[in-house]
Each structure stands twice: as C-alpha cells, then as structure tokens.
C-alpha cells in the first residue's frame, strides 16, 4: 500500500495547481496528417509570445493553458509543413489541426526540426527515429530493419553478427522492455537475429529510453523501446509494399467509415529457402519467417475512440524434416481513449501477449513446447493541470503463465516418456505517478514514483534446502554443486509462494543555459521480476523465462546520468554528450557446467550476482540540408561479479569482477544520407565495435589419451574487432501525373569491403597434430541486394 502521507502530499500539490490553472483558459485537441487522418505523436505546439508549449501524446492529443488573450500559435513536426494560426483565447477552446506532409507539398519548404534538441525539456537519454530515416539506411539483404537502425545510436550495441536482440548501456538483451502498441514483445528477431519482427510499413513512431525512464514504464532493468503502429487511413484506400531478394511485404489501409473508422493490415514473408529446393541435398530443408500486422480504429466522437491492434509472427527452421524449430510472438490489444475534459486524457488497455517456442526432434522421438503468456490491464491518465505542471498517473496489473517445457513422444515407437515441467504463475500489479513542472524560466524538472508488487503463485511444488541454499559449495574440490532438497511443499492454485514489493523513484532536471544549451541530469530505479534462463551470451529463440521466487530474486537497477545538450546554427546541427553509471543487483550467474534446459530445479545451478556499467556517449547530428546524418561514439565498461556467500566460497571467477558478455569498450557509428535530386538519394553506414568478450583456453592437458583444453578467468579474451561499411542508392522514377502509383528501386551493399567478422571462435583438436586449433565462424561477407518499393 502507498503510505497515507504520500497520497495526502500529492493531493495537496494537485489542489494548489488546479486552483492556479482555473485562472487560465485551455486550448486542446488532436493533430493529424491531412492526407490520411493519422494521429501524430510528438508534434510541437508553441506560443512564441509566452514561450510556452507542449507536444502531442501517443494518441495525437495536446492540451495547453494560457491567460486570456490573442496569440499566434506555431505547429511543427518533422517532414511536415510548419503552420501558424491566430487564436483568441477567452474560453476553453478545442481546436483540431491537420498538417501536410512533404509528399503533398510543392513550393512549401518543409521544416526538419525533430533533430533539434528540446533543451527546455528534462527528458534525456532518449533517442527518437522517424520511419523515413530508418528506411534510408542500408541494411543486410535489403530488408529495412528497426532493430538494426537503433544499433547506430550511442550506447546501443549488438551481441555479434546475426545475434538476436540488442544491448543498451552494458545491459543484457533480456533487460530491454520492448513494446508494440503497449504489448510486450519477448523476442524481437526473425531468423535467429538476422531480421527484426517489426514491419517498417506498419510502424508510426518509435522511441528508445536508455535512462531517465518515466514511471509509467516498469519491469525491465536497462531500457524501454516503445513502438506504435499506424492507425490506418480513414480518408482513402492505399496500398504499399516491397519486393526483395529474400522477402516481400504488402500493406493495405483504408476507411471503414470515412473520417471516422479505419483498418490496416500488413504482411511479410521470406522465401529464400525455396531456392534451396533446387538442390537435392537441401530439398527438405527450410528457414523462413512470416508475420501479420493488423489495426482497427473507430472514432465515436471527439471524446471517445476505440482501437484493436494485433501482431502474429512465426519462424520455421527445418533440417531434413528430422529437426524442426518453430517460434514467434502473438499480441492483441483493445484500447479505449477517452477525453474526460480538455485537461484530462485517459487510455484503458486490455492486452494479451504470447511467446511460443516449439521443437520437433523426430530423430530423437519427441516434441518440445515452451513459452510465456501474459494478460495485462492498464488504465493511464494524462492530466494537463497548467502550462507549468503536467501529471501522468495510472494503474497496471499483469498476470503471467510460464511453461518451461512440455515433452511429448512423436509416436508409439518413441522411447521418450511424456513430461511436463512445473508450470509457473505470477501476478504483477503496479501504480505510478509522474509529474513534469517548470520551476523557473531556466529549470524544468520531471519526477515520479512507481510502486510495484510481485506475487509468485501456485499451483507448484517448491523445494526446500538446508540454510535455503539450493547451490552448495564443495570445499574439497572448490566446485559449486547442486543442492539436495530436504523437503517439498505443494502450493495450490493462486496461493502465494513468494511476494516482493519495490518503490521505484524517477527524477530528471534540465537547466537551460540559454536558448540553445542545457545541462540535464537524471536518476531512475527499475525493478525486473522476470529472469531469462539462457545458455548463450545473447538470447537465442530458446528463451526460457522464469519468475522471481524464493531463490530467484528480482533485479534492481539504479542509474544516474549527466549530460550537456546544444543546438547549433538554429538547430541545423545538434550536439549531445552524456555520462552514466548503472548498478544492477541480483543479476543471475550460472555455476560451471550448469544444465539449464529441461531443468525442473533451476535454482540448483544459479547464483545471484551483481552488474555495473558506466560510460560516455557523444553524438553530433546534422539535421537539415541535402546531406544529413550523425556520428555517435560510446566509451564504456560493463562488468559482472558473483562473490562467495561465505569466506570459504570462491564465488564465480574467484569472486572477481569480469567483463560481461555485453561489454564493448569502443562503439563508433556513422550514418549519412544525401539527396542528390528528385530521382537519386544515397545512404551509408559505418559501424565499429570492440570485440565481444569470450573465454579462450589458456592451456591443455592430456587425459586418457585425449587433449583437454583448460580455461582461465571468465571473458578475459575478446573476439576480433567488429566493423563494416554499408552503402545504398535509391532511384525514384518521376511520377506520372495520370497515375497514383509511386515506386522506387533500392540498391544496397552490406559490408562493402567484405570484412569477415567473427561470430564465434571455437577450438577443436587437430586430427593430424593432436593440438587444439582455433576455427573462426563468419556469417556475412559482402552482400549486394536490390529491392523495389511501391505505394498507390
């Protein structure tokens, strides 16, 4: 429960500012794209004479309070015409605006100002990318990729060529909260990390929070990637898509009821595996993916709108029909937007999310199914109390179902017995309050509090051990071993096995040095109650998620950041530099030789350790002109430690700090785009990262005639440095005035100079010499691609 005095304090603050706000009038409404009525996120609404402004929320709504009078307001958004409107504010007024995109403009200059830093806002450690920017980036095999694009931002790295997920400020891929229309995506990759699950044609907006995370977000320790799908055009029917070498996509949108309701449906599928069928050796092999994006929206009136959005994706990998791997995400979200008043906006969401992993091993004789489901209800409010104070608050409740594994024999002749690992259940409720206020002309602050609870629920059988230690330390061999349960206890359905609760404070401040410069600082605490059990350094599709319980404690992350931000030449250029320090308690570590898969007593092979990471991020960005792009550099360190629990225990790695699998000392990314003329545009990316930490053998010995490698400290070695240069050229034929068809050809080369980046280095015994030798595995060399994109 939240302390009574805390509630009283917040009510007092609300009362004071509400009475102050009643002396003013409010201008509110929604801002949409004039072409399709798509609501726009993050549009700037500004009153220059008062030097006050706001931005539209995730549903295109804005609210701004000002004293009685006549004003000129300015509305601007990246890639859209900047408009000025004169208004008379002598009562509360609702004004909806439609703005024109660059595609509709001919002689009007489009203002590109999204790259301009809002130095007044306390928001920091946040990166926003427009879909138009992402689509200009050259990518592997010509497939536009949301996840690959954020790897070019400071503080963001990958876990190697072709690896799934991404790492933020030294954190693990499982510590990122990935949301698609507010629903959790548990695996963001197709084809084992080669592509992301996000269809770029269906995406409207994305934002990556690396720090200073608002209190409305919770459940992960490192970052939040918040992605919203388009609503679909409520004016006219449109289709667009693309045809590539290995995959194609098609998206349709249009009105259900003109200017009120709309639909969107888009699909992608890969087909490169079909070419393998021409080979006799590969005709029974397959590796492909497909996904589907859907959205229905209906606006009942100015105060009520309803949305139904969904996603379904699957990957299939098969070898000669004896090994088949199927996995993917499914989500569904029903949302109701309601405007209680011109100052109070609400959103109620009912969300379902499912991650499934299936494995058919016909050559062994069994099928394996596992996954995680959650059912989520959330009610969020945005309260625009005055031009100096805005509140966000809400409640959230998530119910989880975990299936660690179901084993079934494939036939009567199978020697495998059916088995079901204990299913697990949990409930995670939370409540939050965020406030953003202006203390003076130079100081703006954002502060909030999230209170989260977590209940590990039955039905399950729980093991108990001596001294509550599921892992024991053998002092003779100095090796950690599995503990032996001394007793067990069965907890019935919905009986509480273990509970946790945590306060998660958030705070950020901006001090404006002048119109173009500011210093910002932030602090946030995050709690992660779910843990990913994986036997690789980066999450593979075999992701087994586990809830916190008696032996697995929730991760607690504390992060502080300090930064300097500057707009140069009226926003033509922008410069950001940030430093951060992050500590994470209760980060899982595995004992040597841990058996992680199909383990019904996973607590016997894990220990609770800690992580820390710190670094410096620099970003110089050119926002306007025919040539634009950015340079991002990160200098950082990420470490993990699991000390012994007693003086006799050695801990992991002798209790010493060691480089985490996500430690990349240097990370340089350069991206650029050049518009030569109406027909030709060009893009280039260069990425350079320090090699991933690994453990190489530092010696060998013979046992029964076999040469066995011996290893030193964990992750004391590194793979070679990772780097590549990618280029692209886009040809847009001149539009035929009599046709609505628009098309473009995209020619790209990934890894232009054919760098053979090491995905891994394995050691094996040479048959002739008997010595161990290193074998490097590389996935991509130079990869040319061509694709055709169209819309009508």
Would you mind describing this structure in some detail?
The structure is a single chain. It is built from three helices and 53 strands. It is mainly β. The protein has a 22-stranded antiparallel barrel. It has a five-stranded mixed sheet with strand order 9-16-17-12-13. Strands 1, 4, 7 and 8 form a four-stranded mixed sheet that branches. The protein is globular, with a radius of gyration of 27 Å. The chain starts with a helix and ends with a strand.
User: Main sheet?
Assistant: 22 strands, antiparallel, barrel
Report the sheet-strand fraction.
Answer: over 45%
Distance between the termini: 55 Å
Question: What is the mean predicted local confidence, pLDDT?
Answer: 86
The number of distinct β-strands equals 53
Based on secondary structure, the structural category is mainly beta
Q: Tell the overall outline.
A: globular
Low-pLDDT windows of residues: 6-22, 104-114
The gyration radius over C-alpha positions equals 27 Å
Q: Report the helical percentage.
A: under 10%
How many helical elements?
Answer: 3
